[in-house]
Structures are given as C-alpha cells and as structure tokens.
Design brief:
By secondary structure, the chain is mostly helical. It has one domain. It is 66% helix and 11% strand. It contains four helices and two strands, in the order ββαααα. A two-stranded antiparallel sheet has the order 1-2. β1 and β2 form a beta hairpin. The longest helix is centred in the middle third of the chain and has 23 residues. The radius of gyration is 17 Å and the shape is flat. 3% of the residues are buried. This is YebG family protein.
Length: 97
C-alpha cells in the first residue's frame, strides 16, 4: 500500500490548489494572503468596483508581485511585457520538443 500526502489550499471554502509539493502549497497560500490584504487595502481606500473584479485584480497583482514591484520602481511596462512574452515562447518551445 502506498501512502500519498496531498496539500490542499482553500480560499473562502473553495479548493484552489491540490498538490503534493508543500513548498508550492505554502507559496500559493501566501499569494492568497497577499491578495486578501490588497483587497482589504483597496476597499478601505475607496476603490469602487465589483467584488469579483476586485478579487480578480488583487489575484493578478499578488501573482505578479515581482513585476508590479519593478513597475513601482520605474521599470517600463513594455520591457516587462516583452520579458514575459519571451518566457512564454521558451516554455511553449520546450513543450513542443
């Protein structure tokens, strides 16, 4: 009999991630915490948008925190988008091989 350990990350009662990688589960959980904090902050600052839109925005900002940090430090958006596009091409090329 094999024993398998799974880590389940839930958000508002919904399973968002199931993995056997504890580090990945911890990173995803931390990203969700950042998204919650951003949502609370933006709401307190009076950002007016639907809850679904705000949730989508804060998830994106939390997932892209490194690029957002670079943008806030003055990096041009075009440069970051080009770097992201290059990474996607590399990943797709690797999958095709």
């Amino acid at each position: 009999m094999a024993i398998s350990i799974q880590y389940v990350v839930t958000y508002k009662g919904v399973e968002k991630l199931v993995t056997t990688d504890k580090k990945a589960a911890d990173q995803y959980d931390k990203m969700l915490d950042v998204a919650d904090n951003l949502q609370q902050y933006l709401t307190a600052k009076g950002v007016a948008m639907s809850e679904a839109e705000l949730e989508s925005l804060t998830f994106l900002l939390a997932q892209e925190k490194l690029n957002v940090s670079k943008l806030l430090k003055g990096s041009p958006a075009d440069q970051l988008l080009a770097e992201d596009a290059a990474e996607v091409v590399e990943i797709n090329s690797a999958k095709a091989s």
